[in-house]
Amino acid sequence: MKFRLADGAMLLALGLMASASLPAVQPGGFEFNDAHFHLTNYIQEGTNINDFLRIMGNRTGRVALFGIPLQQLWSYRIDGDRAPKYYLDTDAPLYYYSFTDAFIAMAYRSLTPEQQARFDPMITGFNPTDMYAADQIRRVLQTFPGVFTGIGEFSIHKEFVSAKVAGPKASLLDPALDRLLDFAREVGLVVLIHNDLDRPFAPQSDTSHPLGEAPPPAPVYLDQMKALFKRHPGTTIIWAHMGVGRIVRPIRNDAATLAASLADPQLSDVYFDLSWEEVAKYIVSSPEATRITADLISHYPDRFLFGTDEVAPANQTEYMKVYDDYQPLWKLLSPEASRKVRLTNYERIFDQARRKVRTWEAQHVKRP
Ligand SMILES: [Zn+2]
């Protein structure tokens, strides 16, 4: 499937420009729910959950809470005493770290019921190339009933990360992934998946074309991703970061590509999160980029969720950075669209998942 730049411009011309009023925050109401948050980092260290509640303060209502599925290995042969803290710090591999889910579950269980109500813990510590991954998720639900609402964020194709993971590389064509998504639908788990739309440094135009001028090649993973979604109708899927990465840029005609997906009735259970400062940097990079994004959201306001993608923040300033980076975007949305993206889409999707997962657990967990 190919799109032209003109398609993106056409969206602009559709007259979807929303009013320029600021988001209406109810007195005492929260500014946003966070659909994408990592309590711990790539070495499984992070913010104490009570400290994080203070960081959320009266600005953040609810948070989809998870660790990181991958642990950065510290190889003394490679790094000596220089202990790596991030996946870009070393050539040593990453490996799947299933204890992350037990850690998150215990942190959640340490809270009062009122505090727990503000979190939707997610299962992340599974290997998406393993046909047994669905069984592991079942085991986590049975070990910690009453805790989890979804699975993810887990990654299939992610720049710099996929190639570093020990063992077989993940693929959107893997039957193990189909088994995972089937199980998620059976239970009612929300699925938060990271998959870059394109490969890093993808060409911006096809210069090898004999006539010189040719549409840019389609992003490499778009068709596989759509096919995956279409194989799993009824599974609630959030596509993290709208497929954009640190250097996997929004493709030339990203708005048109997303608009086509949003308009496809077979993809009506697919949502997009606006998380990660690396995504915000593109969206607020120019008034035009912000306007195109705002127009797209205004056309499909039920299909986008705000998330921070912050990792183990030390303080509120760090945690609020992405939300604050998006101020130009919030200002372009109508109060209703802004409220949906910041608050109510999260509530609708995660409330429904909570109910379904608790029902599944009531039927499948044998109480001692
Ligand atoms: Zn993330």
Written account of the structure:
The structure is a single chain. The chain is α/β, with parallel strands linked by helices and 368 residues long. The chain has 14 helices and 11 strands. It has a domain at 122-306 and 313-364: TIM Barrel, CATH 3.20.20. Helix 1 packs across helix 9 (254-263). The longest helix has 30 residues, at 335-364. The protein is globular. Zinc ion (ZN) is lined by residues 36, 38, 153, 309.
In brief:
The protein is an alpha/beta fold and 368 residues long. It has helices at 5-13, 49-56, 76-79, 99-109, 113-116, 133-143, 175-187, 222-231, 254-263, 277-283, 287-299, 316-325, 327-332, 335-364; strands at 32-38, 60-66, 70-72, 94-96, 119-123, 150-155, 190-194, 237-239, 270-273, 304-305, 310-311.
Characteristic key phrases:
368 residues; alpha/beta; 11 strands; 14 helices; single chain; binds zinc ion; TIM Barrel
Strand content: 5-15%
What's the count of strands?
11
Q: What is the radius of gyration computed over CA atoms, rounded to a whole number of angstroms? A: 20 Å
* Count of runs of 4 or more consecutive helical residues: 14
**Derived structural class:** alpha/beta
Largest sheet: 9 strands, parallel
The CATH topology of the domain at 122-306 and 313-364 is: TIM Barrel
Name the strands of the widest sheet in spatial order. 10-9-8-7-6-5-2-1-11
The helix/strand series, from N terminus to C terminus, equals: HEHEEHEHHEHEHEHEHEHHEEHHH
CATH architecture of the domain at 122-306 and 313-364: Alpha-Beta Barrel
Mean pLDDT across all residues, rounded?
Answer: 88
CATH class of the domain at 122-306 and 313-364: Alpha Beta
Mass-distribution shape: globular
Ligand kinds: zinc ion
Helix content: 25-40%
N-to-C CA distance = 53 Å
- Sequence stretches where pLDDT stays below 50 over 5 or more residues: 1-25
